[in-house]
Amino acid sequence: MSEQRPDGGGATVWLTGLPSAGKTTIARALAGRLAREGRRVEVLDGDEIREHLSAGLGFDRADRDTNVRRIGFVAQLLASHGVLVLAPSIAPYADSREAVRKRHEAAGTPYLEVHVATPVGVCAQRDVKGLYARQAAGDLTGLTGVDDPYEEPAAPDLRLVTEGRSAEESAGSVHALLAERGLV
User: Fold this and answer.
1) Residue 166 contacts by C-beta under 8 Å, 6 or more apart in sequence?
2) What is the Cβ-side half-sphere exposure of residue 23, based on CA atoms within 13 angstroms?
C-alpha cells in the first residue's frame, strides 16, 4: 500500500494495457480533473516519450525495457517533487513494470499500477493509430498483444474494464483510488 499523504504530495499512476486500450485518453481526462482541483499533474505519454526521450530505440524486448525504465525514472523524479504523474504506456513486460515500482518504493514515492483491461478485439476496433490494420495486412510485426507478448499485471492496484464506459467514468475510478490512498 502506498504511503498516505494528506498534503496531496506527488505520486505516479502507471496506466498499462494494449495499444488503443484507452490509456492516454483516460490519463488526459484524469489530468484535466486533477488540474481543475488545483493539483500539479503531468502526463508522460508513451508515444511522446518515444519521440523525445527514447528516440532511436526499437521495439525488441531490451529496447522496450529501456523505454519503460526511462519513463519510470522521469515519473519518479517528478513525483518526488510533488507532481501527480500519469504514465500511460503499454509497458508489456511484468519485470520492467516491477523495476519501476521498486524504484518508486526505494525512494518512498507512491506508485499505483492501473491495468486498462480492454480486450484485444475492442482495441482492434478502436485502432486509433491503424496498428491493428497494418498488422493484419502484414505491414507490421511485433504488435503487442497480437504477435508480441503482453504480460497482464497479476495484481494491479486497479483493473479498469473500459468496455461500455466513458473515459470520464474510467478516470473517475482512478481518481477514487487516488482518494482512497490519500493522494488527492
Assistant:
1) none
2) 28
pLDDT of 10 higher than 90: yes
4 has pLDDT over 60: no
What is the rounded average pLDDT of the residues 59-68? 94
User: Can you tell me the distance from the alpha carbon of 132 to that of 109, in angstroms, rounded to the nearest whole number?
Assistant: 36
Dihedral (Cα; 60, 63, 66, 71), 10-degree rounding: -90
* Contact between 17 and 53 (Cβ < 8 Å): no
So what's the pLDDT on residue 1?
A: 33
pTM for the full model?
0.92
* Cα–Cα dist 139/176, whole Å: 41
Instruction: Say if residues 92 and 151 touch (Cβ distance below 8 Å).
Output: yes
